[in-house]
Amino acid sequence: MTALIGALPDPVMLLDDHGVVKSANGKARDLLNMDPEGQHLSSAIRAPQILEAMQAVLAHGGTRRVDYEQHVPLPRHFEAYVAAVAAFEPGVSVLILLKDLTREQQTERMRADFVAHASHELRTPLASLLGFIETLQGAARKDEVSRERFLVLMQTQAERMKRLIDDLLSLSRIEMNAHERPTGTADLRQIALHVRDTLSGLAKDADVEIRIEGAEPLIVQGDWDELVQVVQNLVENAIKYAAGGKLIEVTGKRIGEECELTVRDHGPGIAEEHLPRLTERFYRISAQESRSRGGTGLGLAIVKHILNRHRAKLRIQSELGVGSSFTIRVPAVSAESK
After folding, report:
1. Which pTM was predicted?
2. What is the rounded CA–CA span in Å between residue 20 and residue 42?
3. Which of the chain's termini has less CB crowding within 10 Å, N or C?
4. Strands 247-255, 258-265: parallel, antiparallel or unpaired by DSSP?
5. Which residues contact residue 87 at a Cβ distance below 8 angstroms, ignoring those fewer than 6 apart?
6. Average model confidence (pLDDT) for the chain?
7. In the structure, what pLDDT confidence band is assigned to residue 59 with cuts at 50, 70 and 90?
Protein backbone atom coordinates (compact mmCIF):
# COMPACT_ATOMS: atom_id res chain seq x y z
CA MET A 1 0.00 0.00 0.00
CA THR A 2 2.85 2.39 0.81
CA ALA A 3 4.44 1.72 -2.58
CA LEU A 4 1.08 2.25 -4.28
CA ILE A 5 0.36 5.66 -2.75
CA GLY A 6 3.96 6.69 -3.37
CA ALA A 7 3.33 6.33 -7.11
CA LEU A 8 0.22 8.54 -7.10
CA PRO A 9 0.52 12.12 -8.43
CA ASP A 10 -1.69 13.64 -5.70
CA PRO A 11 -1.04 14.05 -1.96
CA VAL A 12 -2.27 10.88 -0.22
CA MET A 13 -2.29 9.73 3.42
CA LEU A 14 -3.37 6.46 5.05
CA LEU A 15 -4.73 6.60 8.61
CA ASP A 16 -5.49 3.93 11.18
CA ASP A 17 -8.79 3.69 13.04
CA HIS A 18 -7.60 6.28 15.58
CA GLY A 19 -6.86 8.93 12.98
CA VAL A 20 -3.07 8.50 13.19
CA VAL A 21 -1.17 8.82 9.90
CA LYS A 22 0.45 5.49 9.08
CA SER A 23 1.77 6.40 5.64
CA ALA A 24 2.07 9.55 3.50
CA ASN A 25 3.52 9.95 0.04
CA GLY A 26 6.07 12.56 -0.98
CA LYS A 27 3.42 14.89 -2.44
CA ALA A 28 1.65 14.99 0.95
CA ARG A 29 4.87 15.74 2.80
CA ASP A 30 5.71 18.53 0.36
CA LEU A 31 2.22 20.04 0.68
CA LEU A 32 2.21 19.94 4.48
CA ASN A 33 5.90 20.93 4.71
CA MET A 34 6.36 18.14 7.28
CA ASP A 35 6.34 14.35 7.67
CA PRO A 36 2.96 13.53 9.24
CA GLU A 37 3.63 9.83 9.80
CA GLY A 38 3.03 8.78 13.39
CA GLN A 39 1.00 11.91 14.17
CA HIS A 40 -2.73 12.43 14.45
CA LEU A 41 -4.31 13.96 11.36
CA SER A 42 -5.22 17.10 13.33
CA SER A 43 -1.51 17.82 13.80
CA ALA A 44 -0.96 17.85 10.03
CA ILE A 45 -4.15 19.42 8.69
CA ARG A 46 -6.04 21.99 10.75
CA ALA A 47 -9.24 21.76 8.75
CA PRO A 48 -12.41 20.91 10.74
CA GLN A 49 -14.26 19.71 7.63
CA ILE A 50 -11.61 17.06 6.89
CA LEU A 51 -11.49 15.92 10.52
CA GLU A 52 -15.28 15.65 10.57
CA ALA A 53 -15.25 13.67 7.33
CA MET A 54 -12.64 11.31 8.81
CA GLN A 55 -14.76 10.75 11.93
CA ALA A 56 -17.86 10.11 9.79
CA VAL A 57 -16.01 7.57 7.66
CA LEU A 58 -14.61 5.81 10.72
CA ALA A 59 -18.07 5.61 12.25
CA HIS A 60 -20.16 4.75 9.22
CA GLY A 61 -17.80 3.74 6.41
CA GLY A 62 -18.29 4.94 2.85
CA THR A 63 -16.71 8.08 1.36
CA ARG A 64 -16.90 11.84 1.81
CA ARG A 65 -15.79 14.75 -0.38
CA VAL A 66 -15.02 18.10 1.23
CA ASP A 67 -13.26 21.31 0.22
CA TYR A 68 -9.92 22.21 1.74
CA GLU A 69 -8.09 25.52 1.35
CA GLN A 70 -4.47 26.24 2.16
CA HIS A 71 -3.66 29.93 2.65
CA VAL A 72 0.12 29.95 3.16
CA PRO A 73 2.62 30.33 1.60
CA LEU A 74 0.19 30.84 -1.31
CA PRO A 75 -3.57 30.24 -1.58
CA ARG A 76 -4.39 26.75 -2.87
CA HIS A 77 -7.71 24.95 -3.17
CA PHE A 78 -8.21 21.19 -2.88
CA GLU A 79 -11.01 18.68 -2.93
CA ALA A 80 -10.39 16.15 -0.16
CA TYR A 81 -11.55 12.61 -0.91
CA VAL A 82 -11.96 10.70 2.37
CA ALA A 83 -12.72 6.97 2.12
CA ALA A 84 -12.79 3.92 4.38
CA VAL A 85 -10.36 1.18 3.30
CA ALA A 86 -9.43 -2.13 4.89
CA ALA A 87 -5.69 -1.64 4.96
CA PHE A 88 -4.76 -2.16 8.61
CA GLU A 89 -6.13 -4.81 10.96
CA PRO A 90 -8.07 -5.06 13.16
CA GLY A 91 -9.67 -1.60 12.73
CA VAL A 92 -10.99 0.17 9.65
CA SER A 93 -8.52 2.64 8.17
CA VAL A 94 -9.01 5.80 6.14
CA LEU A 95 -7.50 7.01 2.88
CA ILE A 96 -7.31 10.77 2.30
CA LEU A 97 -6.51 12.03 -1.20
CA LEU A 98 -6.18 15.76 -1.90
CA LYS A 99 -7.04 16.76 -5.47
CA ASP A 100 -5.49 20.12 -6.33
CA LEU A 101 -8.09 22.36 -7.97
CA THR A 102 -5.99 25.54 -7.74
CA ARG A 103 -5.18 25.68 -11.45
CA GLU A 104 -8.81 25.18 -12.49
CA GLN A 105 -10.01 27.94 -10.17
CA GLN A 106 -7.24 30.29 -11.28
CA THR A 107 -8.10 29.63 -14.92
CA GLU A 108 -11.73 30.52 -14.34
CA ARG A 109 -10.87 33.64 -12.35
CA MET A 110 -8.29 34.78 -14.88
CA ARG A 111 -10.77 34.27 -17.71
CA ALA A 112 -13.22 36.59 -15.94
CA ASP A 113 -10.46 39.08 -15.07
CA PHE A 114 -9.13 39.06 -18.62
CA VAL A 115 -12.55 39.85 -20.08
CA ALA A 116 -13.20 42.62 -17.53
CA HIS A 117 -9.78 44.27 -17.72
CA ALA A 118 -9.12 43.77 -21.41
CA SER A 119 -12.52 45.10 -22.44
CA HIS A 120 -11.98 48.21 -20.32
CA GLU A 121 -8.36 48.91 -21.31
CA LEU A 122 -8.79 48.07 -24.99
CA ARG A 123 -11.83 50.31 -25.41
CA THR A 124 -9.84 53.56 -25.71
CA PRO A 125 -7.26 52.51 -28.34
CA LEU A 126 -9.92 50.61 -30.24
CA ALA A 127 -12.18 53.66 -30.32
CA SER A 128 -9.23 55.71 -31.59
CA LEU A 129 -8.54 53.21 -34.36
CA LEU A 130 -12.17 53.20 -35.45
CA GLY A 131 -12.18 57.03 -35.47
CA PHE A 132 -9.06 57.16 -37.64
CA ILE A 133 -10.49 54.57 -40.04
CA GLU A 134 -13.72 56.55 -40.41
CA THR A 135 -11.73 59.71 -41.10
CA LEU A 136 -9.59 57.97 -43.72
CA GLN A 137 -12.69 56.60 -45.37
CA GLY A 138 -14.29 60.04 -45.39
CA ALA A 139 -12.75 63.51 -45.18
CA ALA A 140 -9.10 62.40 -45.44
CA ARG A 141 -9.63 59.84 -48.20
CA LYS A 142 -7.54 61.81 -50.70
CA ASP A 143 -5.41 63.83 -48.26
CA GLU A 144 -1.98 62.17 -48.38
CA VAL A 145 -0.51 64.24 -45.54
CA SER A 146 -3.40 63.43 -43.19
CA ARG A 147 -3.36 59.80 -44.27
CA GLU A 148 0.31 59.38 -43.33
CA ARG A 149 -0.23 61.11 -39.98
CA PHE A 150 -3.26 58.94 -39.16
CA LEU A 151 -1.44 55.75 -40.14
CA VAL A 152 1.33 56.57 -37.66
CA LEU A 153 -1.25 57.20 -34.93
CA MET A 154 -3.07 53.97 -35.82
CA GLN A 155 0.17 52.02 -35.56
CA THR A 156 0.81 53.54 -32.13
CA GLN A 157 -2.64 52.49 -30.88
CA ALA A 158 -2.28 48.99 -32.38
CA GLU A 159 1.11 48.55 -30.69
CA ARG A 160 -0.41 49.69 -27.40
CA MET A 161 -3.12 47.02 -27.68
CA LYS A 162 -0.49 44.39 -28.50
CA ARG A 163 1.57 45.33 -25.41
CA LEU A 164 -1.53 45.17 -23.26
CA ILE A 165 -2.51 41.74 -24.53
CA ASP A 166 1.07 40.45 -24.18
CA ASP A 167 1.21 41.67 -20.55
CA LEU A 168 -2.19 40.17 -19.73
CA LEU A 169 -1.15 36.82 -21.16
CA SER A 170 2.17 36.99 -19.31
CA LEU A 171 0.37 37.73 -16.05
CA SER A 172 -2.02 34.83 -16.68
CA ARG A 173 0.84 32.39 -17.25
CA ILE A 174 2.56 33.49 -14.06
CA GLU A 175 -0.62 33.15 -11.99
CA MET A 176 -1.23 29.68 -13.42
CA ASN A 177 2.06 28.49 -11.88
CA ALA A 178 1.97 30.68 -8.75
CA HIS A 179 1.74 27.68 -6.40
CA GLU A 180 4.70 25.87 -8.00
CA ARG A 181 7.95 27.19 -6.62
CA PRO A 182 10.81 27.33 -9.19
CA THR A 183 13.43 24.63 -8.77
CA GLY A 184 16.25 26.15 -10.84
CA THR A 185 18.96 28.61 -9.85
CA ALA A 186 19.90 32.03 -11.20
CA ASP A 187 22.50 34.73 -10.50
CA LEU A 188 20.86 38.09 -9.82
CA ARG A 189 24.07 39.94 -10.66
CA GLN A 190 24.29 38.29 -14.09
CA ILE A 191 20.61 39.09 -14.60
CA ALA A 192 21.29 42.76 -13.81
CA LEU A 193 24.17 42.83 -16.33
CA HIS A 194 21.95 41.14 -18.94
CA VAL A 195 19.17 43.69 -18.38
CA ARG A 196 21.63 46.60 -18.63
CA ASP A 197 22.83 45.31 -22.00
CA THR A 198 19.27 44.65 -23.21
CA LEU A 199 18.06 48.15 -22.29
CA SER A 200 21.22 49.98 -23.35
CA GLY A 201 19.52 51.44 -26.43
CA LEU A 202 16.53 52.72 -24.47
CA ALA A 203 18.85 54.16 -21.82
CA LYS A 204 20.97 55.89 -24.46
CA ASP A 205 17.91 57.47 -26.05
CA ALA A 206 16.85 58.78 -22.63
CA ASP A 207 20.41 59.94 -21.83
CA VAL A 208 20.50 57.70 -18.74
CA GLU A 209 23.39 55.67 -17.33
CA ILE A 210 22.65 52.25 -15.82
CA ARG A 211 25.33 51.52 -13.23
CA ILE A 212 25.74 48.00 -11.76
CA GLU A 213 27.33 47.96 -8.30
CA GLY A 214 28.61 44.92 -6.41
CA ALA A 215 30.81 42.20 -7.85
CA GLU A 216 29.85 39.07 -5.91
CA PRO A 217 27.57 36.43 -7.42
CA LEU A 218 24.03 36.41 -6.02
CA ILE A 219 22.82 32.85 -6.55
CA VAL A 220 19.13 32.38 -5.79
CA GLN A 221 16.54 29.68 -6.24
CA GLY A 222 14.48 30.86 -9.16
CA ASP A 223 13.57 30.94 -12.82
CA TRP A 224 16.06 32.91 -14.93
CA ASP A 225 13.55 34.21 -17.48
CA GLU A 226 11.01 35.32 -14.87
CA LEU A 227 13.63 37.08 -12.74
CA VAL A 228 14.94 38.81 -15.87
CA GLN A 229 11.39 40.02 -16.43
CA VAL A 230 11.28 41.39 -12.87
CA VAL A 231 14.55 43.32 -13.10
CA GLN A 232 13.84 44.49 -16.65
CA ASN A 233 10.44 45.87 -15.62
CA LEU A 234 11.99 47.76 -12.70
CA VAL A 235 14.87 49.20 -14.73
CA GLU A 236 12.64 50.04 -17.69
CA ASN A 237 10.22 51.88 -15.39
CA ALA A 238 13.12 53.87 -13.97
CA ILE A 239 14.22 54.84 -17.49
CA LYS A 240 10.71 55.83 -18.59
CA TYR A 241 9.52 57.70 -15.52
CA ALA A 242 12.70 58.93 -13.83
CA ALA A 243 15.01 59.70 -16.73
CA GLY A 244 15.54 63.24 -15.41
CA GLY A 245 17.82 61.77 -12.74
CA LYS A 246 20.30 60.68 -15.45
CA LEU A 247 21.53 57.75 -13.31
CA ILE A 248 20.01 54.39 -12.39
CA GLU A 249 21.93 52.36 -9.81
CA VAL A 250 21.44 48.60 -9.53
CA THR A 251 22.98 47.30 -6.32
CA GLY A 252 23.12 43.70 -5.11
CA LYS A 253 24.19 42.01 -1.89
CA ARG A 254 23.52 38.94 0.18
CA ILE A 255 21.77 39.35 3.53
CA GLY A 256 21.56 36.16 5.58
CA GLU A 257 19.51 33.58 3.69
CA GLU A 258 18.39 36.05 1.02
CA CYS A 259 19.90 37.94 -1.89
CA GLU A 260 18.86 41.56 -2.33
CA LEU A 261 18.81 43.63 -5.51
CA THR A 262 17.88 47.32 -5.49
CA VAL A 263 17.03 49.48 -8.51
CA ARG A 264 17.40 53.13 -7.53
CA ASP A 265 16.68 56.20 -9.60
CA HIS A 266 17.17 59.92 -8.94
CA GLY A 267 14.00 61.11 -10.61
CA PRO A 268 11.01 63.07 -9.31
CA GLY A 269 9.94 60.42 -6.80
CA ILE A 270 6.46 59.10 -5.98
CA ALA A 271 4.02 60.56 -3.47
CA GLU A 272 3.59 58.39 -0.38
CA GLU A 273 -0.15 57.79 -0.88
CA HIS A 274 0.53 55.97 -4.16
CA LEU A 275 3.11 53.47 -2.83
CA PRO A 276 0.73 50.83 -1.38
CA ARG A 277 -1.19 50.57 -4.66
CA LEU A 278 1.63 50.51 -7.20
CA THR A 279 1.47 46.72 -7.68
CA GLU A 280 -2.28 46.69 -8.37
CA ARG A 281 -3.33 45.82 -11.90
CA PHE A 282 -3.85 48.90 -14.06
CA TYR A 283 -3.07 51.30 -11.21
CA ARG A 284 -1.34 54.37 -12.58
CA ILE A 285 -0.14 57.52 -10.83
CA SER A 286 -0.86 59.40 -14.04
CA ALA A 287 -2.82 57.42 -16.62
CA GLN A 288 -2.09 59.93 -19.37
CA GLU A 289 1.67 59.92 -18.76
CA SER A 290 1.77 56.12 -18.46
CA ARG A 291 -0.03 55.62 -21.75
CA SER A 292 2.06 58.26 -23.52
CA ARG A 293 5.18 56.31 -22.51
CA GLY A 294 3.76 52.97 -23.64
CA GLY A 295 2.86 51.69 -20.18
CA THR A 296 0.07 49.15 -19.70
CA GLY A 297 -0.35 49.47 -15.93
CA LEU A 298 0.60 45.80 -15.49
CA GLY A 299 4.40 45.91 -15.09
CA LEU A 300 4.55 46.01 -11.29
CA ALA A 301 1.63 43.57 -11.00
CA ILE A 302 3.72 41.11 -13.03
CA VAL A 303 6.71 41.82 -10.77
CA LYS A 304 4.61 41.11 -7.65
CA HIS A 305 3.22 37.82 -8.95
CA ILE A 306 6.61 36.54 -10.09
CA LEU A 307 8.10 37.37 -6.70
CA ASN A 308 5.18 35.65 -4.95
CA ARG A 309 5.91 32.50 -6.93
CA HIS A 310 9.57 32.74 -5.85
CA ARG A 311 8.58 33.31 -2.18
CA ALA A 312 10.37 36.64 -2.56
CA LYS A 313 9.59 40.16 -1.38
CA LEU A 314 9.33 43.63 -2.92
CA ARG A 315 9.98 46.84 -0.98
CA ILE A 316 9.29 50.27 -2.49
CA GLN A 317 10.70 53.48 -1.04
CA SER A 318 10.40 56.94 -2.52
CA GLU A 319 10.79 60.62 -1.68
CA LEU A 320 9.48 63.44 -3.81
CA GLY A 321 12.28 65.34 -5.50
CA VAL A 322 14.88 62.74 -4.47
CA GLY A 323 14.03 59.51 -6.27
CA SER A 324 12.74 55.99 -5.75
CA SER A 325 14.17 52.58 -4.94
CA PHE A 326 12.63 49.19 -5.67
CA THR A 327 14.21 46.34 -3.72
CA ILE A 328 13.63 42.63 -4.24
CA ARG A 329 14.72 39.92 -1.82
CA VAL A 330 14.90 36.37 -3.14
CA PRO A 331 15.79 33.24 -1.13
CA ALA A 332 19.45 32.42 -1.68
CA VAL A 333 20.77 29.00 -2.62
CA SER A 334 22.27 27.44 0.48
CA ALA A 335 25.84 26.22 0.51
CA GLU A 336 24.62 22.62 0.99
CA SER A 337 22.57 22.69 -2.23
CA LYS A 338 25.26 24.17 -4.45
Report:
1. 0.59
2. 9
3. C
4. antiparallel
5. 1, 14, 22, 93, 95
6. 84
7. confident
